[in-house]
Every structure is written in structure tokens, then in C-alpha cells.
Amino acid sequence: MIRSLTGATVALLPVLLLAAPAGAAEAPVVSVELSDGVDEARDGDVLDYVATVRNEGGAPAAVTVTVTAPPYVSLDGEASWPVELAGGESRQFSISATVGEPAEKDYQVVTTASVAATTSPGTTLVRAVDADAIAGMDAPPSVRGLTETSGTMAGSPVPLILGGAAVIVGVGAAVFFWHGARRRATTR
Predict the structure, then answer these.
(1) Is 74 helix (H, G, I), strand (E, B) or coil?
(2) CA 84 to chain centre
(3) pLDDT of 138-168, one tens digit each?
(4) Nearest-5° Cα angle at 24, 23 to 29
(5) Helix and strand counts by DSSP (H, E) for the chain
(6) Which candidate, 107, 110, 104, places its Cα nearest to that of 137?
(7) Cα distance between residue 175 and residue 3, in whole Å
(8) Cβ-Cβ contacts under 8 Å for 117 (sequence gap 6 or more)
(9) What is the C-alpha separation between 33 and 95, in angstroms, rounded?
(10) What is the full DSSP assignment across 115-160?
């Protein structure tokens, strides 16, 4: 009886574990995009940034969106917004910035939008950058064209969970069939 119960428990284990990841789909999945609509900037230009933050998951997300710019760029107003996003919701935040005189080594105006969990200040979940070439400045050949405009929360656990569940199902099936073959062999 104990052997049969053990075999049944091992056979049911993968089914129980496959049911567990359903809650993972309810987690918030936050992404952010940042754009000013231009590809080139010069001293004196006013850039109008729009940061779009999305919660593509099923659970609400309490986050803070922060826009930062290089020291020679002056942001006009508050550049940090706390927000609660329901699952599937997105919000946009706008801020203008005035470009000052860049340092001689700078060839891009790189502005960043970061999203941090409100419950964990200082822990960045995701970030995006908008990079505009500075008029008259040449980028080194090794970095031309390597600018990002959006980001998404990295390291989703779903593939890992599904892969682990597949391994467990395989092991459970092998043990179940091995146990059944052994049981048939002892009854002959």
C-alpha cells in the first residue's frame, strides 16, 4: 500500500506543480519608453520628453517614474512621479528640458527614464534612454547606432518555471512508469 501511495504521489506531483505557476501570470510586468521625437540636439534647444510606463501584467504596480538628464541639460520642473498602475494600464509623463553647452567629450544627449518599485526605493525595475546626437560632434565608430529607446523588465521567471515544470513532469512520468513496470514484474 505504501509503494502504491508513493507512486501515486510522485505521479500527481507534476500536476500540482504545474498548477502553481498560474499565480505568476498575475504579477505586474512593467515597461517604460522615453522619447523626445528628435534625433539631434544643439546648445539652446528645448526638448520635450514623454515617458510612457506600462503595466502589462495582471496585478497592480506601485512605482515611481524618474527622468534624469546629463549635467548640461536643465529639466524644467519635477522629474519624478509616483504612480499606481492597474494591470494593463499605461500612463504618460511629460517634461521639457533645455540643452546647455555640452562637454567637449560628449557626442549625445542621453536622457534616462527609470522605474522603481515604490515599496523598494532605489531599486530600479526597468529603464529606457533617449539618445540624441549633438550637432557637430562625431561619435566614436564603436558606438554609432547603439542607442536604446525602450526597456522592459528583464528576467521574467515564466520560461524558468515552465522549463522546471517540464523536467518535473518528465521525471514524474519516468518514476511512474518504472514503478508500474516493477510492480508488474513482481506479480508474475
Answers:
(1) strand
(2) 17
(3) 777 665 555 444 444 445 566 667 777 778 8
(4) 130
(5) 2, 10
(6) 107
(7) 12
(8) 61, 62, 63, 64, 123, 125
(9) 14
(10) EEETTSTT-EEEEEEEEEEETT-PPPGGGTT----EEE----SHHH
User: What is the pLDDT at residue 97?
Assistant: 96
pLDDT (tens digit, 9 = 90+) per residue, 103-123?
Answer: 888 899 999 999 999 887 778
Architecture of the CATH domain 30-155: Sandwich (2.60)
Least confident stretch, 81-90, 94-103, 122-131:
122-131
62 DSSP assignment: E
Distance CA 107, CA 15 (A): 56
Q: pTM for this structure?
A: 0.62
**Cβ atoms of 125 and 153 closer than 8 Å:** yes
DSSP 69: -
Which pLDDT score is estimated for 157? 61
Q: For the sheet with 73-76, list strands across it.
A: 73-76, 90-99, 46-55, 30-35, 150-152
Residue 88 near residue 120 (C-beta atoms within 8 A): no
Amino acid at 99: V
For 126, the grid coordinates are 526597468
